[in-house]
């Protein structure tokens, strides 16, 4: 008995020592502050595409206004050996990647404000200043780098208080010309709430110094005090965390700083960070056009463009719930649960089977669309046949939220209180990458390095809210293209401010979209005009340059072969000459904003309203058209163009990874997650790259 007691005492003592050890690591006892290195000296060689328009026309520059480094605590976790193993990245790494790997013309850093401390915010601003100092002639820089942050509100299923994620970008970066602290949506980042022992357990799969530094940084973030209420932002001490709980509060604090800035909503239809029943109407009263002039319609987290009118569970006016019918593009999981249940009956058409289906449906509807799947035991992912996901769509966001989509938001004419309100936003694309690699969409060659996917071939695949299959819905991301009169900061900002920009899914297509009979003459995308006569439009487009393997000499000379491999993955943006990819077609979308609060949205979105096939012999495409019904309808209309390029293999080109029958029916899904998602599997499938122009807003005179 004495020996057993001594053994138990030894086990308890060993556990206590282990817990103390992991607590010490998770508390940062062995860690310390880390920060950016100095960005590599520039500038790079500027190689602009040949624009086949008159010399007086603006040039087109490409950028990425949404990127994270390890200063975002979630990015730190993602890049550890525990998940991706891509290593720690800083804003300086992002600067070097944007300059030499992806050869961007402009970009911004947007780490989560909730995890930024005064120390790392100061380092971020300093790094962006250095990145711009290395850009060469300020009037003709190789690249413009903007400083900013992400305001991340929500992540709950409470619709009224969920305002989503928004990127703040500041026009200036010089000393005294940026906020001395970012504005967060809450006092502490969720990861920092984890017990120190849990953080310390990272050391079992990660180097001790990496785990310890993470614990130190997490603890540093938790110790930042919240700024006092009622004090103007520019009068607060630099050492506190400024909090804005709503967009209106965020705008007020930005007003107090007085610096030019824009606020860009993103992740609109991404179900992993939005309530599945979210509705942009509920936050329209918090929309201010002077800040929210742009919306991120595409990113590495997917496409948020389309409004497809569906519900996961139907709710009647009396509060009763039922399961909606399936459509060609969306199957509610309650409907798939019915199919599974009936298939397991020995006599599927019997009354007894009907009773089983009815009992299951009641249980499912009571649990809701997320937990409802648990009402059926012993299923595998493919049993659910892609239910709950938007299908037959280009690279959709996971667990698509249709009433947060760009089309739905643009079609609204009234807020939740029935007051007239419209959102007029231009469209952009970005990466939303958490590996410090802005503009990583130049080649579809390195899924783990170029996307946010955390799947690297393990049986226990790491996925947020695994019931939403989010792990398969990661892409290399998009870009913003800006029509500018120069390469400098002010020229780029002017394009952002006037919405004279467009989004791409990653390829650098050249696109022009103009109203050619405006009251004052021709005006470009993003414009707002009032006219009583039928509008006439012109779309012109060129396919993206064909790429060749490897990196250009200037990148190797600046970074060295080893860093080209570690930072760029051995591949860079590298056109092989003037040869361009073939365009397939141009699609035009027309949206008529609501004129009554009760007007249904779906009939107001005409997609596509017009379609123009492109010549098969070349990369150029032109379409001109007129809306002859505009004057007859006598109401405002919004027009934008989608330029579709010929299909090619894309990472996540088919997030369902379907096996098809000869008739094109998907009979099995092999999601790129878990053991299928090995590091050498890029999970590519044919898909059509595309660009989305900013809308032209045509108002009918009242």
UniProtKB/TrEMBL annotation:
Gene3D superfamilies (alphabetical): Metal-dependent hydrolases
Domain of life: Bacteria
Protein name: DUF3604 domain-containing protein
Species annotation: Candidatus Seongchinamella marina
